[in-house]
Amino acid sequence: MKVSLKVYALTLSLIILLISIIFGHYIYLQIQNAQIKLSQWKQNTAQEELIKAIESARKYTINVATDFAEWDEVRQQIINPVFYPYWRDQRMMSSQKLPNETISANLYTSDGDSLSSLNILNFPSSLESRNIPEPYVINDKSNGPLIISFAPVISPGGQSVIGYVAVSYPYMPLLVNHPYQHLKEDSINFSLQLSKTSLPESKDYIVYELDEDESSAVVKSILNIIGIAVLTASLIIAILLYVLLNYGVQKPLQLLIRHINMLRKNPDFLNSGQFIKQLHIHELNDVALALNAYQEEL
Length: 298
What we know:
6 helices; single chain
């Protein structure tokens, strides 16, 4: 099967272009894979940051409950709870012994019974003796998600546990005010549908957005530019190759073929003095010189 040089040049250019497209597609897939891995890494890092924020909230609220449990008036109320309802309503929250953000607090005896006979909002009516509950989260309609933390009340001599305290504290401010690098703190939202969950499991009900840092955006932009540049360069090379083969090789060959045909078909052309001018391709120019010399000899 014979093909023209023009078809050969076009085929070769298309092959180069096809190879470039395949290579560009491979680069694009690698870029996409890198972006997916980067996104997954940021997601995992943000999740780790959230877990640290939850642990920080746990420690903070336990410290709040522990400091509150060391207040002498708390010990006095547990030992003699006659005036507890009045003390709780008039003295407890206004004493500055609890942070201003604290929602409420409650006291329990050493047996875990609440000092208040009323159903105190958000607090359990009794605790298991000698088993301090871990902090947990409740979904309060008025105040949003709250952390309930507990601490033992130790006797003045430090010899025994005479009771317990429970403190309710807003959960969201503790999460939002925690320092993050890959998580938008202002996007944190709590979607707990249950009335209560443990503090570690509360992460499953927290939604947030990832923080798009400038370095990731720059890397993504650079990778996209590289991919586009490779495809563009490949297209330009294919076009240039076709043009060079078409005009640099095919045209001179056609000129040689026409000259030979004129010599063969028209005897008068032999003495016309028309010779092939210098060609830019060295090998083709040698052919032209040889043909011109042969014409002169004839």
